[in-house]
């Protein structure tokens, strides 16, 4: 096991949003050997409970809350609840997100509003609620999941790209304001999860397990991007 990774993560209190599936579940599994106090958040409680059950011998502890990150009051209550339970929040893994085709010809306001509300506003609500705990404590780590799609506007993915570049700039701006907090923005390429299984053009596809290992190493190296 990489010593830097073990040193960084061991015993931390980690909030993961979008823990019911894909990258969030894989990151939880990758971190479980480090004796983590997890706060797992997503709308579907059952898969998070199954994950905690699968990892119950890992040495980590699991606090689970069903929460829709599009609702600011619910996010604030969930973050407060986990902080009260764990005593502190060392790391917030801001991962909840939705994808989909937002081409001009297939314009669907329901999908578009939901994407903006989940990927951008939900991420801002969660980050702000966690900073409310971390800034007075004088330390903490915020990890934002952007996307390679934020590097340039791709056909049919404009709204998704806009949410991800918006998140990246929001976190970059906070990093300039709050030097006591570590901000790491991760821009994954294609990872094999339900989010993109309908997309026939996935290339350089990575498994969630491999992606999670690369991500937890990058955070332990305190990379900004
Ligand atoms: N897969 C890729 O290739 C890829 C590439 C770049 C970036 N990403 C980003 O990685 C993150 C994780 O995606 P994934 O690929 O792991 O997809 P996924 O398997 O579909 O997981 C998405 C997660 O987000 C949660 N979520 C969605 N809407 C939510 C809401 N309103 N409130 C709370 N949680 C919500 C889902 O949980 P519930 O449905 O239970 O709420 C689920 O746990 C996303 O931000 C995505 O944009 C993925």
Element layout with pairings:
Elements: H1 3-9, E1 13-17, H2 22-31, E2 37-42, H3 45-54, E3 61-66, H4 72-86, E4 91-94, H5 109-137, E5 140-145, H6 158-177, E6 181-186, H7 208-220
Parallel strand pairs: 1-2, 1-4, 2-3, 4-5, 5-6
Helix pairs in contact: 1-7, 2-7, 4-5, 5-6
The structure holds NADP nicotinamide-adenine-dinucleotide phosphate.
Plain-language structure description:
The protein has a single domain (3-220), classed as Rossmann fold (3-Layer(aba) Sandwich), CATH 3.40.50. It is an alpha/beta fold. The chain contains seven helices and six strands; from the N terminus they run αβαβαβαβαβαβα. The radius of gyration is 17 Å and the shape is globular. The chain starts with a helix and ends in a 5-residue tail after the last helix. The protein has a six-stranded parallel β-sheet with strand order 3-2-1-4-5-6, sandwiched between helices. The mean pLDDT is 97. Helix 1 (3-9) crosses helix 7 (208-220) and helix 5 runs parallel beside helix 6. The site of NADP nicotinamide-adenine-dinucleotide phosphate has 29 residues, from helix 2 and helix 5.
């Amino acid at each position: 096991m990489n010593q830097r990774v073990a040193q960084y993560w061991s015993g931390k209190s980690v909030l993961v949003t979008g823990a019911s599936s894909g990258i969030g579940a894989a990151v939880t599994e990758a971190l479980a050997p480090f004796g983590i106090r997890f706060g797992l958040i997503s709308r579907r409680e059952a898969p998070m409970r199954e994950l905690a059950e699968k990892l119950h011998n890992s040495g980590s502890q699991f606090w689970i809350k069903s929460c829709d990150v599009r609702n600011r009051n619910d996010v604030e209550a969930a973050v407060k609840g986990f902080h009260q339970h764990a005593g502190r929040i060392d790391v917030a893994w801001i991962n909840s997100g939705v994808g989909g085709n937002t081409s001009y010809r297939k314009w669907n306001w329901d999908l578009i509003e939901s994407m903006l509300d989940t990927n951008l506003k939900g991420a801002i609500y969660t980050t702000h609620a966690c900073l409310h705990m971390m800034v007075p404590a004088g330390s903490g780590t915020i990890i934002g999941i952007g996307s390679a799609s934020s590097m340039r506007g791709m056909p049919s993915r404009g709204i998704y790209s806009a949410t991800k570049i918006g998140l990246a700039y929001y976190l970059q701006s906070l990093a300039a304001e709050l030097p006591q907090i570590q901000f790491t923005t991760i821009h994954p390429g294609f990872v094999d999860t339900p989010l993109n299984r309908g997309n026939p053009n996935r290339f350089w596809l990575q498994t969630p397990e491999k992606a999670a290992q690369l991500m937890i190493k990058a955070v332990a190296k305190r990379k900004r991007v």
